[in-house]
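Form 7-S
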Amino acid sequence: MSDAQPDQPTHHPTLDPDHEPATEPVHGRAGSMRAIVNSTDGGPRSLELRDLPVPHRPPGHVLVEVRAAGVAFPDVLQSRSEYQHRIPTPFALGSEFAGVVAEAGEGSGFAEGDRVFGVASHGAFADYVVAPGDRVLPLPDSIGFVDAAALPINLLSADFALRDRGQVQPGETVLIQGAAGGLGVALIQQAKLIGATVIAVVSTEEKAALARSVGADHTVFAADFLTEVRQLTDHRGVDVVLDPVGGDRFTDSLRCLAKRGRLVVLGFTGGSIPTVKTNRLLLNNISVVGAAWEGLMPECLVSLPEQWARLSPAVELGELRASISEVVPLEQVPEAVASLDERRARGKIVIDLGLG
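Output:
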């Protein structure tokens, strides 16, 4: 996931619902649409802006005219076909979207003109995207398209990691790696709503400021986080580590755990997949569990509508909100995805399809 942003979460008054056309299309549906395409598996900078046919809507799916799309780490992996769900090239990239329903089947719960957001397997960096009906969520009028497009993957993954896999309880102490990235911000905010004490691991003072601004109780630097965590916890350790980074931090993350602690694996943005010496698990009765929220969607083993029903009140109150650092037009998707890949991005980058 992306890393950090120096300021408070950005608000976009010009993109609020009162300033957005409710149903007028940005680009016509006749014939073709713009899309960002992976045709070579060459990574972010090889992505191309092309014209493609507007996708056909299969039964049980919803066709959405995209107004905004979020840039997420799966997009980096899909640009090289390294994601666990491989898609034959060429294909349109992009997972997170917000927009207006262009077409929906009977019984879907949606109608043409409805404001929605959600997650597609791919294709969200385009004027239109198709997604299964159970991955499309109603968007309240109080939430703008840009803010909505920044939410789904990080918001819902964090909920799944904290409640389902980490089983975080009020009063516990959690350590969050990559805490200034998009997922890290969502983890901090939701852990605080649960009632946990949050220690955020960051790499710069700028990123520490962001983590504190969204609720972290303490910030520690990645270079020596184990020593700092031991000092903060009087050598007890933390109850839960939430780790989307992996790599060479992993062993020290295990060492940070208190007895009966849990480490939740969310990804490997650090670039390498670590191994576990199981004697560490045995000696302190600790657990390592995976949290692949998107991996459960094809079998309907997670319910996006149920998660959104639980989280939406806090979103509407502003208690859960993405830290958006950049809003760019569709033409800048290759650079935006590269920024995430190269760990230059701070906060969430969103694509506004009405720009340019």
